Amino acid sequence: MQSRLPILIFAALMAAIPFVPGMPPFWIVLLDNIGLAALVAMGLVLLTGVGGLTSFGQAAFVGFGAYTTAVLSTAYGLSPWLTLPLSLLVSGSLAVLLGLITVRLSGHYLPLGTLAWGLGLFYLFSKLEFLGRNDGISAIPPLSIGAFKMLSPGSIYYAIWVAVIVSALLTMNLLDSRTGRAIRALRRGHVAAEAFGVHTPRAKLLVFIHAAVLAGLSGWLYAHLQRAVNPTPFGAQAGIEYLFIAVVGGAGYVWGGVLGAAIVVVLKEVLQSYLPLILPGSGQVETIVFGIMLVALLQLAPGGLWPWLMSFLPERTSGRKPDTSLKLEQRSRAPAEAGVLLQVEKARKQFGGVVAVNNVSFDVQAREIVALIGPNGAGKSTTFNLITGVLSATSGSISVLGRKVDNAPPQEIVKLGISRTFQHVKLVPDMTVLENVAIGAHLRGHSGPISSMLRLDRTDEAKLLAEAARQIERVGLTEQMHQLAGSLSLGQQRIVEIARALCVDPMLLLLDEPAAGLRHMEKQRLAALLRELRDGGMSVLLVEHDMGFVMNLADRIVVLDFGTKIAEGAPATIKTNPEVIKAYLGVAA
Amino acid sequence: MNTTIMLFLVQDGITNGAIYALLGLALVLVFAVTRVILIPQGEFVTYGALTYASLAAGQMPGTAKLALALGIGAFAFDLFVARKALHARLVVRSLITNIVLPAIVLALTVYFASQKPPVAVCIALSLVIVAMIGLYLYRIAFQPLAHTSVLVLLIASVGVHLALQGLGLLFFGAEGQRGPAVLSGAFTAGALRFTGQSITVYAITIAFIVGLWLFFGLTLYGKALRATAVNRLGARLAGIRTTLSGQIAFLLASVIGALSGIMIVPITTLYYDSGFLIGLKGFVAAIIGGLVSYPLTAVAALVVGIVEAFSSFYASNYKEVIVFMLLIPVLLLRSLAAPAVEEEKD
Questions:
Q1: pTM metric for this prediction
Q2: DSSP string, B23-89
């Protein structure tokens, strides 16, 4: 997707810097530090900016990487190149351990949890005998290739920046893939992603590990740059600083991490060397300025500096249209997708004392459009949530193709060929329409994170995007394919949700108020599309308030009122049913 | 282990735990009302403690000047926000609360600092100074961000913590200080010796817990604060001034923080950066309490205090490790009992 040219130019520029005549050696040291911080910040971008998981504990993973190589290369005399995979392995596996505990925490518990174990680990580093307690470990061997030893900051410079640029490329590849879309959907909550088969805890753990491995890499480089480690740079303060770097640069952007690192490292240096001249007195004045600037930045530019810079560049024209001739294999189907597809039997849902759905029974046959109607609060959306596994029923049963699926998670329901849209649109606003729709085909792709990073997923990815493009075309939004989903009108966003649901290749489509916010012509087009889908063999269960729309479209109507089914039948009989009229218009009518 | 040591450790733990309980309560209060996770709570503790100790030692605390400086900042923010409709009443009210008040307090502080004032005056001045700092901080740092996510507020809170800690070093130096006991005298019961200071700690903690409980349960303001916590927009539509709720929460938190500091500083030497760790232990308690429950937080704080006392006796090297790792099993339990459906908000 993204052009590689700017990155190549950047890499060439960075490679040329040490050759600039008269370049002060101290600047190279600064650039080394920027690279080290950028690696950690990049992980935080993925973790916090993209995935929505805030961690104050990244410094601890830097520590794991640094201490692993320090211990192994001093006490056991291992070559630094051998300790690299081990450093990454240690940070990665500890991330699994800590991640299993922490990533499932919701909202603010997660950052607080990371703060707590970050502090605990810092004290552990400074107390353990074999890590040298507060003094740490010194005399770490330098990196070397043959006889060439990377002793000076200038010689390790290349190792650091190769690591930064390669990591950035791999991270960007990861984001622009099937797994990446799942990660980018995390920040918007897990209900929508899970409805299309994304295993959200696993996706969260994945970004957690990715960020930890990047931090471990930074730690490994740090240990061989300084050739000594002690606990100080791995404490809570450092963890906070890494987060600050990511926020300054722009937490949602991989290059924002690099930019943030550059700004913060240089700023710190300037503050430390010049502030005492302006404000004589005891040290730590820079932390005051630092803190104030952090608050000011959040108030003035909460998105960070990278997006602000990018807004000066001419807007790039939208991406290419995927090659729609590529076919994605169909979802594996049950032998008989005919007869009764969905059977709801005495389903009941209680929230405390409130009975939202009261022993409701109905079914959906193959090639049928069934409408679920009823006044506000009748329990229609709750019924949807019961069917799709978002909520578990208090009692009663739900069967798909004759098989009971009670309390199956949403990821399992979608595998059976039931896909849905939401009453309150749940798209990822900062992803394009195409990418949003492609989430619907998540289960029909197979590439994992590693193959995505290495770009081995391109055929799989092309097929997914082709399928998404086909469904977008089908619902008539080809024009908007490359626009951000958040920029569309609400009605169009609902249509995008339908395209996303169609990407599942479903046998039963559940639509929650699909016509709300649509204009008359759009409604007619939607009705035509739904009829076409039915004639093609799909069934539709829809909740809708527009009676004209429902009466003309549905083959059968189920009416709910206060959680109880009060009528069921063909549109003509429902129209004249006294119970239904009473529910909608009151007794006198 | 002999019983005397155990009793002694338990007593020590309860005294510390009571302080953590107070801080935990303040954290819960601020979070519930403003969604700010108040990392600078620790600075309120050190500012309160060291302002008190400085005054008692006849030195001029820099915090009084900081309060005035922040007040001027808050006044500027008020003027800027209201620049399109500058009513005289509004300007005068802002001038009085943000500039006249801290100026008077500064004058009083300068006057008293030179003549070693009695303990009560020191306490009163320290409390007022830190309370004003808390109030103005809310106006300057957090009120403009009130609509943003918990995460943004958390990062801002870290920023405020850094700035305040740096200022703390500037005001009080790197040396630790101790203050005079609030209540002298002691009595013994069996093997245990109760000092007036520890009795004060217990009494104030209990008073605050009961007070907060009554405030939130019975008074209109308390209910307004709770309403703000649940739904800002809804509360505003019902006529509750949400900024006022935030101000009250910060005021209470800074007073509680300063009071905790004043109670500890006679018992242990405090440094400009001691507050952070003390505050974090309050946090551990608050998190165990789920950031919502006051009684659970208080109980958790006592547990944290006792665990700390025992681990500092048996494994003093790993005291901090043990206290912070205490969170892991709690978090584990919470994640196992994670809510089934979580509606996203952003």
A1: 0.83
A2: HHHHHHHHHHHH----TTHHHHHHHHHHHHHHHHTT---THHHHHHHHHHHHHHHHHHHTTTS--HH
